[in-house]
Amino acid sequence: MGFTFVNLGLHPIIDGTEAERLRLIFKAVKKENVVQEAVAIAEEMAATSSTATRAVLRTLRSKQDIGLAAALLRESDTQAQSFASKDYAEGLKAIAEKRDPNFAAFEHYE
């Protein structure tokens, strides 16, 4: 059968706030604040461990192509690699010293 209205493109229009509530988008912002919000999100992402971010993205993307058991094994391997990284050590040290971590101090490899 299907969803006739959707197939015809006659679906109800929702605004950004509703799309955010439904988790269709990350965050709804006013048009005049888009660049400011995008920069703030980018700065927040840049302050995190690029090693961990790459690992998370790689793991999430791989789950689309492989079965659950293989994905869980890959995730386990990725966590083991992360625990051995300089970023992990820096994160733990920063927590112990009650300061923000400095992940930029390390050279990162793909």
TrEMBL record:
- Which SUPFAM superfamilies would you find in this protein's record? ClpP/crotonase
Recorded hits in Gene3D superfamilies, A to Z, give:
2-enoyl-CoA Hydratase, Chain A, domain 1 (3.90.226.10)
Q: Name the Pfam families on file.
A: ECH_1
Q: Which InterPro entries match?
A: ClpP/crotonase-like_dom_sf, Enoyl-CoA_hydra/iso
Protein name per UniProt: Enoyl-CoA hydratase
Q: Which organism is it from?
A: Globisporangium ultimum (strain ATCC 200006 / CBS 805.95 / DAOM BR144)
